[in-house]
Structure formats: structure tokens, C-alpha cells
Specification:
There is one protein chain. The chain is of the alpha/beta class. The protein has two domains: about 120 residues, no CATH class; about 120 residues, no CATH class. It is about 45% helix and about 15% strand. The strands form two sheets. The protein has a five-stranded mixed beta sheet, covered by helices on one side. Strands 2-1-3 form a three-stranded parallel beta sheet. A hairpin with a 4-residue loop joins strand 6 and strand 7. Helix 1 packs across helix 2, helix 4 packs across helix 5 and helix 5 runs parallel beside helix 6. The longest helix has 23 residues. The N and C termini lie far apart (about 55 Å). The mean pLDDT is about 85.
């Protein structure tokens, strides 16, 4: 009978599940997030207890068997949150630990090819978040932005924004996953808050953002509108560089503050 290891959805929890696979010598096993796991008559379920020591042992073992790129790709693919990616990664890890050669470029293996394609999608989303995040200055001196990326890329964005805005306190909050990355001028911290997009409505903006910030937003919107020459529009090209799903992050794409 197939065994399904159910974990808490964290990367540490996933690595703990990998450790349990070896510890209990499972040969027919699947790893699933707790919120996605569904009991069937053909599978035995086992809950994984997240254990940082066990997770570190797996991660250190991979450092010895994988290239640095291959190891990083495991993490990036995991952040995709694609259903079933855990089992592709388990396959990758098993091969890496059992073979004496690097297998991260063995694209004849369909699971490794799937991981490579997933990593490209995650990296693309990460770079777009780097480019399209727009901060607004709050009354307490914090530069604040909200995002809803397709993949869980905030951990990958942290270094970029820390380097770029090293002299400012800022918070980027993922509304979809309900957590954010906060920089306090010293280090990056992960935070959870109750945040709603209502804060961007004109009726609410005065409570959160400075008058100068609101004036700047309006000035930028007016500038964008005045320099936008309708006869020279190339919407097809524009959408290639700025896909429509990212417009919600851009001040210039909202002619007026929401009412």
C-alpha cells in the first residue's frame, strides 16, 4: 500500500518528510501538504512532525551531492506551490543522494525536466516582482507595498529589496499568502498582519499614507496620462513587457485613487 506523508506546508516540514521517507524505508510514498491531503482507500496516511535537526541533515546531505545550482533549484521549485511538486523533488533528491554524478541537468528524466521548467517560471515571477513592486510612504515612516504573486517568491525578493532600499524601513505584504517581509534597517523579518486592499481606497488612504505620498501618486498619474500618446500605442508590445495581471501594482495604471 502506498504511504502518504502529510506535512505542514513549510520547506522545513518538507525536508522533514524526506528524512522520514529514509528513516522508515518507504518505497512507495507520496508527500502532500496538510491542506491538500485527501484520504483514500488506497493510501496510508502519516503526519510528519517538522523537525529542524532532521531537515538540516537532509539539506547538508544535498550540499555534498548536488551542485549549488541544483540545491537552490530544489528550494525555488518548492516555492512554486504547484500541486505534486513535492514528489518531483523527492525523486530528484533520491537520485541525487544515490548516484555519484550530478543529475540536475538530466532532462531525459521527465521529473527533472519538470523541475527545471518550474524553476524558470518562479525566477520569472521573482524578477517581475523586483520590477513592479510600488511602495507608498505611511504616516509612521514605513514604505509599504502589497503583492499577490502567482508563486511564493517573497523569500527570493528579500535580498534585492534589502540591497536597493538599505536606508529605508519597508514592508512587502503578500495578500494571497497572508505574510510579509519587513526590513527594519538591520535585518529582514517575516511578519503576519491583517491587511486589506481597502487601504488604497481614497476614503481610507488619508488614515494610512502621508499627504505628500498621496500628492505624489496623483502627480505621477497625471504625468503618465499627459505623456501617453494614443496614436503611438502598441498594446501587444506593451503587454509583452508589462502583463495585465501586474497592472494592479502600478500607480500609473490607476488614473484616480479608488473611491
Amino acid at each position: 500500500m502506498k504511504t502518504t506523508l502529510v506535512y505542514d506546508g513549510t520547506f522545513e516540514g518538507f525536508l522533514s518528510a524526506v528524512f522520514q521517507t529514509y528513516e522508515e524505508k518507504h518505497t512507495n510514498v507520496s508527500i502532500e501538504k496538510k491542506e491538500l491531503a485527501a484520504a483514500t482507500f488506497f493510501s496510508e496516511y502519516s503526519c510528519v512532525i517538522t523537525d529542524s535537526e532532521k531537515a538540516n541533515r537532509v539539506w547538508k546531505g544535498l550540499a555534498q551531492q548536488c551542485t549549488a545550482e541544483g540545491k537552490n533549484n530544489i528550494y525555488k521549485a518548492f516555492l512554486s506551490e504547484i500541486v505534486g511538486i513535492e514528489n518531483s523533488l523527492l525523486h530528484f533528491i533520491k537520485r541525487s543522494l544515490s548516484e555519484k554524478r550530478h543529475i540536475d541537468k538530466d532532462f531525459a528524466d521527465s521529473e527533472i525536466l519538470k523541475i527545471a521548467k518550474t524553476v524558470k517560471m518562479v525566477q520569472r515571477e521573482k524578477h517581475r516582482m523586483d520590477a513592479f513592486v510600488r511602495f507608498r510612504l505611511t504616516k509612521d515612516g514605513l514604505y509599504f507595498a502589497t503583492v499577490t504573486p502567482d508563486f511564493n517568491v517573497l523569500p527570493l525578493n528579500a535580498r534585492h529589496f534589502k540591497n536597493r532600499y538599505a536606508d529605508q524601513k519597508w514592508l512587502i505584504y503578500d495578500l494571497k499568502r497572508k505574510y510579509g517581509i519587513y526590513y527594519d534597517l538591520k535585518e529582514i523579518k517575516y511578519v503576519t498582519l491583517q491587511v486589506s486592499e481597502e487601504i488604497y481606497k481614497a476614503s481610507q488612504a488619508t488614515y494610512y499614507f502621508t499627504e505628500d505620498e498621496q500628492a505624489f501618486q496623483e502627480l505621477w498619474q497625471n504625468y503618465f496620462t499627459s505623456t501617453n500618446i494614443a496614436s503611438r500605442k502598441n498594446m501587444k508590445l506593451h503587454l509583452q513587457h508589462v502583463p495585465k495581471r501586474y497592472w494592479k501594482y502600478l500607480s500609473e495604471k490607476t488614473p484616480k485613487l479608488k473611491n
